[in-house]
Amino acid sequence: MGEHKVKKALKRKLRSALLLMLITGILVSGIKLPAKADTPYKTYTVDGYGSVTETQTAYLPYETLTKVGEETLVTPTDFTLVNDEYIYILDSGNARVVVSDMNGELVMTFGEGTLVSPRGIYVSKDRTTYVADRDAGAVFVFDAEGNLTQTYTKPTEAMYGETQEFLPLKVVANASGTLYVVCESNTNGIVQISPVDGGTFLGYFGTNATKATIWTIIWRALLTDAQRAKMQSNIPATPDNMAIDDKGVIYTITRGEHNDTLKRLNIAGVNMIETTEYPDIPAAVAAGNHDNVFVATQTGFIYEYNNEGDLLFMFGGSDDGKQRIGLSTKVEAIQIGLDDKIYLLDSEKAQIQIYEPTEFTAYLHNALYLFSKGRYEESKEPLGKVLEMNNLFTYANMAMGKALYKEGNYEEALRYARIAKDKESYSDAFWEIRNVWLRNNLSLIVMLILGLVILWKVLAFLHRKKQILAGPQAVLTRAGDVKLIKQVRYMFYFVRHPIDGCYGIKKEGRVSVLSANVILVLGAFLYILNKYMCGFLNKTVRDGSYDVLTDIGMILIALVLVVGCNYLMCTINDGEGKLKDIYCSLIYSFSPYVMLMPFIFLLSHAVSNNEIFFVQFGNFCMWVWIAVLVFISIQEINAYTVKETIKIIGLTIFTILIVCLLAFIIYVLWSQVFDFIQSIFGEVVYRIGS
Amino acid sequence: MAHNRRNKVIARILTIVIVTLLQFSGIFADCGFSGTCRTVRAAEEIDGHAYVAESDAYRLYMKEEDLSLVVENKETGAYMESAISYDDGKNNDSWLGAMKSAIVMTMINGNDDTQQADLINDNVNKNITFTDNGFSAELYWTKYQFGLTLEVSITNDGVVANIPDASIHEDGTNYYIGTIALYPYMGNSYLDEKEGYIFVPDGNGALIYLDDKEGRFKSGFSGMIYGGDIGLDESDVTTLLMDRYNTISDAEKVIAPVFGIAHTDDQLAFLGIVEDGEARATIECIPNGVSVDYNRAFAKFILRKTYTQPTSNNSTAGSLHIFEAERSHSDLRVRYMFLSGDDADYSGMASAYRTYLQKEGHLQQADTSYNTRIDFLGEERESFVLGTSSVVMTDTDAIREIYEDLKSEEVTDILSVYKGWQKGGLYSLPIDSFKVSSGIGGAGALLDLMSDCKDQGIDLYLYNNALLINPDEKNATFNVVKKINKRRYEMETYMDVYETLLYLTPQRSEELLNRYIKASSKKGVSNLALAGVSQNLFSYTYREDTYSRFDTQDTYSGLVSEAAGSTELILEQPFAYLWEDTKAFLDMPLYTSSYIFEDESIPFLSLVLKGSLPIYAEYVNFEANKQEFFLKMVESGSYPSFYITKESSAELIYTNSCDIYSSEYSSYKETIAQYNRELSELSHITDGAVIEQHEILEKDLVKVTYSNGTKIYINYGSGEKEADGISIPSMSYEVSR
Fold first, then answer.
1. Positive or negative CA dihedral for B41, B45, B50, B54?
2. Do A388 and B717 make contact, defined as CB atoms within 8 angstroms?
3. How far is CA B168 from its chain centroid?
């Protein structure tokens, strides 16, 4: 409490001092204050479908710290903010620590003579400084006055590994003084050292897992030992940087780890988040004040995530000689101030760029905070502000959907959840809405069904007495006698009696190519209908995107490949089937799709996640049925044994792959030849022309 | 520093002595070559520059060796030089040549376009003829076999340097002129020897102070006047976000061909106006520490450029690096308007430029009365099964309702631009007939709305981008712009519905626009908001012919003035050469491109135009810091602009306008009313007046003085500030009359 008060008082003092300086118009020595300016970089966010979209500027360039007092920095590689009072900068080029106040005035320097090639710094709240020095092979600890108090060198414990070098790059410490050290070329993980007995090695922490894809496993099985030795060894990656938050949670970043690039490790070293959007060359990570996390890339992009790893913002950029404010050349470290300002250290520019959050971001942070604390009702206000400024901001839409759901406003919740593509909330809201609807309409539905049954009975009765339905019946019978309709209707017989069905196709001419085409068109239509118009929870494509021509093309290509390759394989394997028979039987094997899809489609509109099983089960049954029919029809049309059929299916798949490969090779070759001819022609034309 | 100064003084004296001696020997030579032999007034000279001529206020001196100039204020004796007078000894011959010569060229020799030609390092035949108010120098570079004539004359407001197009001749086959920089060190200063700043025409305007930059910057400002050229690809390295997204916004375009330097300690300044050849020139404003330690600002004319000619459609297959066969043709003329005393600052530059524009007839007095600009988006398209389906955001009834609603908030002075009114929606381009989207209510409803608006005094303009064509909607096989390398120019939208848009050739734009104007005026519609052609210039090829930016400029200015004759025309972010034909300036940038070397952003263009042309700022919608943006409008005397839809902008998510993430009327109603209240009152106070003085009193505190005596103080800081006995709260403004 006391400390808190002091901090507050100090902060107030600092603010008034700053104010005074601004009023008197004195330009603070180390800080360059930029002109009131627009941001030269755009800010992006990601929607529920993973598409990147532009949004409002989230952070504005605020100030640039180029010097500390009169001291210039040489390739600084790390820094730490302490209570928004001091900035501890690791001036690596000069092998020292430079301490600055928030105005860029020099407080002190220390570490000269001790440090050799320092790479990482961490300063605790009580201003104990930990410096990771790679070439000295040690972590140095300094007290608040800058006196060296402790040196941790390579752990002597056998568990550390005798041949393992100790090359500390980055260091953080938790409240009890336990060190976490990232070491170069130590793939076991983060080295955890307790301050007990002048440094006790506790073990490795947060080791990255090695990943073996199916392909590497297959490859390895195929390769000889010598070849395997030449392959890049599959060892886990060393984390590149880390950060610790007030609760002692460690954040690590490791390049090349895809979804595990950013990790949030609890005390046990278990990762608690997974990110779908991650940077390729992460340089540094920092914990924010609202359970949010920031990752800076070496190229100058800053990513902000919420506590679940959902991406909120990406912004910033690489300078590339453009010389515009807020762009970076080589980022080494990132820190977040208590007032949510972002501090970004650029080693090549030897400066700290400070960004301040905009109004928009401030509302979002407020909402993040309230929402994570479960104060949904309160979070609605800042969320509303955020959405007013950006109707399409996914995180806000999602949170708003959840908040409204909690409130019982299901219709609105449904709308927000759909924009955010939050299927879970959508399903919940949908369930509630459907529930209400059912409750209100159940009696009506029952009555309707009853009415229909009675109507049917009455009609049947009347028909028996007076033959009133004779006319329509005759029309139906006549229509059923039309050859094409008869042929199409044959599918109902086919799906139930595939063996007889195939006989009918092969010997009796019960179907025609035309009727098969009709089924094909019906199937394609249903496929497209289901793909784009099915219930939201079952949808696999983005709302609002349509690519029907490609779909039709894909269906046709697949059909030609399967039928063609199958025919080719059958003819050279003593199959009896003619091309027409193979085509028709294959198409008719897909009849269950045409028959069941309309029901699955309708069902998809009526289910929530709780009953989505029915849709999936329906789909599963349908496909199994189709597979059985395909198998039987290949067997029957060609008069194969089961064994031969399996062989033919394998061969067909193989042939399809070969055909695709050939097509690809031919395409590449011809495009090369074509390009070559065109280049020669082009060059001749321009040479002659000029 | 003192040491430097002393060195400099000694150097100056030495130069004077040497040059005087040279001058005397030169008299005879001079008479021998030129027809009109004049007495050289050796007695009056500055830094080895001999007296040439004078006007009412200024004297002109010139040094024959490098044709460098000194312009002296007759009254105060303060002067500016076009060549460095102090050499810090760090510069090689090539740099020294550039620092002293009146003309510095880069040449194209095969693939190399970096070689320099100047008047010091090269053998140049000079034939100097003196005139009543200056001189004319015929120059010929014997080695490179090209030449030109430089004419310099002094006027009452300064100096004009001119290179007539006809005088430029290239006789050789090895060397061609690439660029010509005219008096690149005019008004130069060494490190922080002078107090003052360079005025940079970036965005609305920016200043670079003449303090010691300590070598922090690797380059200075270099901006193509009237924006970049899509016809000639600029190679540009950009690190992309996720290897796909360019996060860096385009730099602001140079809207007016001006630059300047002010030496506030000498109370002497100049404003450079590129009068001719500006459509293919860059403005360079370079602070000390960039290569050399001198501050400089100048115009560089481009005559020829190298470009990459791909020889196949596959970009990796092969390409040639070649240069333009024909140079661009135009006189190259820069007017240096000198300003003294209280006028020697950027406010003075702005006034001088305004007076100049008015005198030359490039700026007419328009109706500058206050309006809140409320633009509407009518119809957009989203993908649907085999084509697109319509998304109606604001129909005519909705607009009527919004106007009614605003009336109750006392917002009555309104100017509106209706976008996406045409059949097929916003991106159904080009518009060559008067076919109205049925979604917004059809032609009848739109005409009714327009006539009602007229009755209520609301100006409703129909938006027409005459530059773009949408190849997915219209036949774009012919009449579209190809780059100089004969490849079609495709503008990527990075959106899902229409992925690319193309540029129409200027002739085609003109033809289609005229067709539209004819069709619309038949219906009695005369309000036209024109975009695209007002804010782009490019060189291009069509059929077998190559067209330069000057050709495009000619066609566009013809097209615009014709349109201005037959319609009520307003232009979107128009370049300076179109200002005479517009009734309003839409989308005025209020910021700069935020270069790290810029120290201050100033509303230069607003200072020039305020009182002559109503200025509408960019849309408020997309500003993250609304209050700061509001104050920027107060400072620059701009009127607010809103982009409004009746429906929620979430409806736009699957359209090409998905970047409009906030536009719903209900979200903006209060802001509109509030801005309208404050800014219309302000505008009422300053009605008809021009901005006389704009001062940065201290960091974050600005004072704007109008010609009617109104003073506005704007405080961007986080604390209360005081000026002239008035206290201004944080992030606020105060008016004093």
1. negative
2. no
3. 26
- Asked if residue B365 is part of any domain, the answer here is no
Domain membership of residue B1 (yes or no) is no
* A406 three-class SS: helix
B contacts of A675 (beta carbons < 8 Å): 312-314, 317-318
User: Please, is A396 exposed, middle or buried when counting C-beta atoms within 10 Å of its C-beta (0-12, 13-18, 19+)?
Assistant: buried
For B:647-666, CB contacts with A below 8 A are: 648-650, 653-654, 658-659, 661-662, 664
Q: Kindly report the pTM of this predicted structure.
A: 0.84
Same domain, A464 and A493: no
Looking at the DSSP bridge assignments, the partners of residue A293 are: A287, A305
Q: In what helix (H) or strand (E) does residue A614 lie, and over which residues does it extend?
A: helix A612-638
pLDDT above 90 covers a percentage of chain B that reads: 77
CB atoms within 10 A of CB B37: 14
Assigned domain for A605 exists: yes
Range of the domain at A656: 484-671
Q: Residues A559, A450: one domain?
A: no
- Give the CATH number, domain containing residue B612: 3.20.20.80
Provide the domain limits for residue B210. Answer: 86-360
Chosen domain end from A412, A440, A468:
A468
Helix, strand, coil percent content, chain A, rounded in steps of 5: 50, 20, 30
Kind of pairing between the strands at B414-419 and B459-465: parallel
Give buried/exposed letters for A539-567 (b at 16+ CB in 10 A, else e). beebebebbbeebeeeeeeebebbbbbbb
Residue-wise pLDDT for B704-734, tens only, equals: 999 999 999 999 988 999 999 999 999 999 9
| Domain shared by B722 and B668, yes or no | no
Please report the ipTM that was assigned to this predicted complex. Answer: 0.82
Percent of chain A with pLDDT over 70: 93
Strands A293-297 and A301-305: antiparallel
B632 touches chain A (CB under 8 A): yes
State whether B255 and B319 are in the same domain.
yes
Decide if A662 is inside a domain: yes
Q: Please tell me whether residues A567 and A444 are part of one structural domain.
A: no
Give how many domains chain B has, as a whole number: 3
Segment B254-280, tens digit of pLDDT:
999 999 999 999 999 999 999 999 999
**CB distance from B629 to chain A under 8 Å?**
no
Distance CA A12, CA B59 (A): 58
Nearest to B370 by CA among B705, B610, B571, B706: B610
User: In this structure, what are the phi and psi dihedrals at residue A129, rounded to the nearest 5 degrees?
Assistant: -105, 130
CA distances, A203 to each of A101, A209, A268, B226, B703 (Å): 37, 16, 12, 64, 64
- B245 to chain A: which residues are within 8 Å by CB? 42, 44, 52
* B45 part of a folded domain: no
Q: Is the dihedral of CA A538, A544, A545, A549 positive or negative?
A: positive
Nearest-10 crossing angle of helices A410-420, A423-466: 110
User: Do A488 and A453 have their domain in common?
Assistant: no
Minimum mean pLDDT range among A189-203, B146-160, B238-252: B238-252
Looking at the domain assignment, is residue B703 inside a domain?
yes
Q: Are B31 and B37 in contact (CB under 8 A)?
A: yes
Nearest Cα residue to B497 out of A390, A547, A533, A527: A547
Q: Look at residue A288 and give its three-state secondary structure.
A: coil
Q: Where are the alpha helices (DSSP H) in A80-213?
A: none
- Same-domain status, B274 and B395: no
CB contact under 8 A, A678 and B317: yes
Q: How many domains does chain A have?
A: 2
Whether residues B288 and B207 fall in one domain: yes
Mean pLDDT of chain B: 90
DSSP string covering B393-410: S--HHHHHHHHHHHHHTT
Q: A303 forms bridges with which residues in the sheet?
A: A295, A314
